[in-house]
Amino acid sequence: MSKCFALSRYAATVYHACQVIELGLIELGKFLGVKDPKSGFTAVTRELRKLVDNGHSNLPDKYRDCFDFLEQMHGLAEALKSAWRNKIDHAQNTLVLMTPDFTPDIAEEIMFTSRSFMRRLATEMPR
Q1: Three-state SS for 97?
Q2: What is the CA radius of gyration of the chain?
């Protein structure tokens, strides 16, 4: 991701950032107990939405102490999915950019946001 950005390959920067975010979501999905064999953006955001929509009082005990974290991760994951990931198509287990039109500023923003997202998962996700 960073190398692509340094080489002015902004679409590739976004591609790699989305792959990193999806790997983080897969790990979050393991914590959430996502059973979908294609865990990632769709399965994890669906599970987060279900947990958040049920509300704090209806959460399983495992998640009660981390409701704020789950709520924030849900918002971030939905935003990332809608804003960036949906510009990428999965074709036979390969990510394909649907648009090459990523400016340096947009690519840099996506790169920083992916780092921030992963840092939050690494430091705030319950064990």
Answers
A1: strand
A2: 15
CA–CA dist 111, 101 (Å, integer):
15
pTM confidence score: 0.81
Quickly tell me which residue has 């705030």 as its tokens. 124
Q: Which residues contact 95 (CB under 8 A, 6 or more apart)?
A: 15, 18, 19, 88, 89
Distance of CA 85 to the CA centre of its chain: 8
Cα-based distances in Å from 126 to 70, 84, 118: 10, 26, 14
Give the domain range for residue 79: 2-124
**Half-sphere exposure (Cβ direction) of 124: Cα atoms closer than 13 Å:** 15
29: Cβ contacts below 8 Å, ≥ 6 apart: 36, 39, 40, 43, 44, 47
Contacts of 124 by beta carbon, 8 Å cutoff, 6+ apart: 69
For 5-58, the pLDDT digits (tens) are: 999 998 888 888 888 898 999 999 999 999 988 888 889 999 999 999 988 888
What total of structural domains would you count in the chain?
A: 1
